[in-house]
Amino acid sequence: xxxxxxxxxxxxxxxxxxxxxxxxxxxxxxxxxxxxxxxxxxxxxxxxxxxxxxxxxxxxxxxxxxxxxxxxxxxxxxxxxxxxxxxxxxxxxxxxxxxxxxxxxxxxxxxxxxxxxxxxxxxxxxxxxxxxxxxxxxxxxxxxxxxxxxxxxxxxxxxxxxxxxxxxxxxxxxxxxxxxxxxxxxxxxxxxxxxxxxxxxxxxxxxxxxxxxxxxxxxxxxxxxxxxxxxxxxxxxxxxxxxxxxx
Length: 247
What we know:
The protein is of the alpha+beta class. The chain has helices spanning 2-38, 115-118, 124-132; strands at residues 44-55, 58-69, 73-79, 85-91, 95-100, 105-110, 145-149, 152-159, 162-168, 174-181, 186-198, 201-213, 216-229, 244-245. It has one domain (39-245): Clam (outer membrane lipoprotein receptor (LolB), chain A), CATH 2.50.20.10. InterPro entries: DUF4292.
């Protein structure tokens, strides 16, 4: 009789444990799917932003005109006082082209060139997501830990040698993103605020970004003053013959 009773209790406990695990996994998957569904999807984006750029202590107030064709290319024109263009960039998943009109030089490199300034974790999709105010796709993963905190949702874990933490608001938009690889001296911190309605899309009107890769540090404060989605766009880019490759 004692033997039979023990077996019965064991079976019941095991069934409850399996049910609890299944329920936990299901809730986590539903939350991750909800986060993915809450991110902004688009074909094209064009935006104008006032920005403060600080590269290794050299600070400048500029205007950024940004155009994106989703998953294909990012075009950025940087203008200074009086609307004079000082630089232009065209970034694709494979390459980066940059012209510096002040010094009459250009850069033509594989995409990996960006990793010198934005860290080894940066991909084309990372840049596209940060510009739009989306979560970095690789972090919204079944490998992430998910918990509720202060009315929002927190994702945390490890990704490609980085420790990360992403804080989402009640609308499941990313308010803060932090990645750190202390051994490699790399950190990325992003704060999105003042979310606004842009047609039927939602984006942050303000983005603060801090990237450090060893002795290289970039700070960006960006404030959108104009934005539009899914309109026909062109991406003009040509290197003048007199320009020389940057050293």
